[in-house]
């Protein structure tokens, strides 16, 4: 049953990304182009996502297990540190240049978008490099 719930939620999320235009790099870059032909429509998508997230996390914080019976695993780290800031900057720069972030890129790739495939492959290479350097530093 857990896998069915995960599948339905993932499918719903993916459809939401497609319908909202988050899988279209041109629309995303238009949203980020504040000095040019700015397209504010994705602000409503993000605002809706933040609102649902705030409500969902607010309810979840009051419970010890999820609706499916799984226990919650909350992040242990709560401070803002250098790796978090640098990672956020890299994420934002990549999002602005490519017009994709990980979730929409996976959906666009599954829909047959060749640019999304290149992005996902580059993202996977970056993740592998991170793990390699992380192991080397420990």
Strand content: under 5%
Instruction: Assign a percent range to the helix content.
Output: over 70%
Total helices: the number is 6
Order of helices and strands: HHHHHH
Description:
The chain is mainly alpha-helical. Helix content is 70%, strand content 0%. The mean pLDDT is 88.
Summarize the structure.
By secondary structure, the protein is mainly alpha-helical. The protein is 70% helix and 0% strand. The termini are far apart.
How would you describe this structure in keywords?
70% helix, globular
Any chance you could write out the topology, listing elements then pairs?
Elements: H1 2-20, H2 25-32, H3 41-60, H4 82-98, H5 102-110, H6 114-137
Helix pairs in contact: 1-5, 2-4, 5-6
């Amino acid at each position: 049953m857990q896998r069915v719930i995960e599948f339905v939620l993932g499918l719903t999320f993916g459809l939401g990304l497609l319908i909202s235009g988050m899988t279209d790099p041109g629309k995303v870059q238009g949203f980020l182009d504040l000095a040019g032909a700015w397209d504010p429509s994705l602000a409503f998508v993000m605002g809706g996502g933040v609102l649902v997230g705030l409500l969902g996390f607010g309810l979840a914080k009051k419970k010890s297990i999820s609706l499916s019976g799984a226990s919650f695993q909350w992040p242990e780290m709560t401070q803002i540190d250098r790796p978090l800031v640098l990672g956020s900057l890299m994420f934002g720069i990549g999002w602005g240049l490519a017009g994709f972030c990980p979730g929409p890129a996976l959906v666009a790739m599954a829909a047959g978008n060749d640019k999304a495939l290149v992005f996902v492959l580059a993202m996977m290479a970056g993740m592998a490099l991170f793990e390699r350097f992380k192991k080397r530093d420990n």
